[in-house]
UniProtKB/TrEMBL annotation:
Name of the featured protein: Short-chain dehydrogenase/reductase SDR
SUPFAM superfamilies: NAD(P)-binding Rossmann-fold domains
Domain of life assignment: Eukaryota
Keyword Protein biosynthesis: no
Family per similarity comment: Belongs to the short-chain dehydrogenases/reductases (SDR) family.
Gene3D superfamilies xrefs: NAD(P)-binding Rossmann-like Domain
GO molecular function, one term: oxidoreductase activity
Length: 261
């Protein structure tokens, strides 16, 4: 007998039995992606750098949805930590289907005022971190699995003070396209999401002026929410919607800073 609940149950099992790692999942966009994936049936590794209580809150939210989750502290910019993140995932869940390289840092200065220390921090987390975690994960990602990397609309539409951040995200986009080719023989898809101005601690660290700039830049006159970006991640991760998409860069930006063409 068909019940009204049946179609909903089917919708919510799109990622059933899949194992997803989301880096930087204690807050903001990563948190929303982790919870979205769990709502679709995935078991999730909630990576964080230092904010243990926030990560544990995300794990509790996932348990409340009926999915499994563990929190794993690992600084993605540290090679040993990145390898341990993958090893702890395999020890607990035995496999990896989805990797989201979301952990990132935004620090903005005009290029002439950028310190070497700050440059190295941005590159270490945004670029080295993406590489270290991906390198450790790739041998273990299941056939038909997927990698999702977080870039930013600044690579299309920069504004003053974001040159080094843009340098880091441009590297992420190129890495995505090259990996899409490299991993295609294993039926692994690799894609980028480029959020626009999204309401998170990162954005708020830029003060009211940055938030106002984000509202004005959007064609819909609001900031994106982390949940908006999580829907884009779900599109890629769910085999039914994402199966024929690789090497792509989806601008999830409310039209702020250009279009996905
Ligand atoms: P937030 O600053 O709100 O959250 C950052 C997350 O990354 C936290 O969970 C933090 O963990 C984690 N993190 C930071 N450094 C490390 C590290 N070295 N190792 C592991 N985890 C780390 O960021 P957003 O949610 O706003 O951004 C997420 C991604 O989206 C980033 O890649 C960012 O560049 C990108 N993006 C964001 C935009 C925006 O407007 N918000 C726009 C475009 C792109 P902890 O809590 O432990 O500190």
């Amino acid at each position: 007998m068909t019940t009204a609940a049946a179609p909903l149950a089917a919708l919510q099992s799109d990622l059933k039995n899949k194992v997803a790692i989301v880096t930087g999942a204690s807050r903001g966009i990563g948190r929303a992606i982790a919870i979205k994936f769990a709502s679709l049936g995935a078991n999730v590794v909630v990576n964080y750098a230092g904010n243990k209580s926030a990560a544990e809150e995300v794990v509790a939210s996932i348990h409340a949805l009926g999915a499994q989750a563990i929190a794993v502290q690992a600084d993605v910019s540290n090679e040993q930590d990145a390898t341990r993140l993958i090893n702890e995932t395999l020890a607990h869940f035995k496999k990896i289907d989805v990797l989201v390289n979301n952990a990132g840092v935004f620090l903005g200065n005009p290029v002439h005022a950028e310190t070497t220390e700050q440059y190295r921090k941005i590159m270490a987390i945004n670029v080295d971190g993406t590489f270290f975690v991906t390198r450790a994960a790739v041998p273990h990602i299941q056939e038909h699995g997927t990698i999702i990397n977080l870039s930013s609309v600044v690579t299309k539409s920069p504004f003053p003070g974001v040159s080094v951040y843009t340098l880091s995200k441009g590297a992420v986009e190129g890495f995505t396209r090259a990996l899409a080719v490299e991993l295609a023989p294993r039926n692994i898809r690799v894609n980028t999401i480029s959020p626009g101005f999204t309401d998170s601690d990162m954005l708020r660290s830029g003060g009211d002026a940055l938030a106002k700039q984000g509202v004005e830049a959007s064609l819909f006159k609001r900031l994106g929410s982390p949940e908006d970006i999580a829907e884009a991640a779900a599109f890629y991760a769910v085999p039914r919607s994402g199966a024929w998409v690789t090497g792509a860069n989806l601008l999830s930006n409310g039209g702020a800073g250009g279009f996905s063409v």
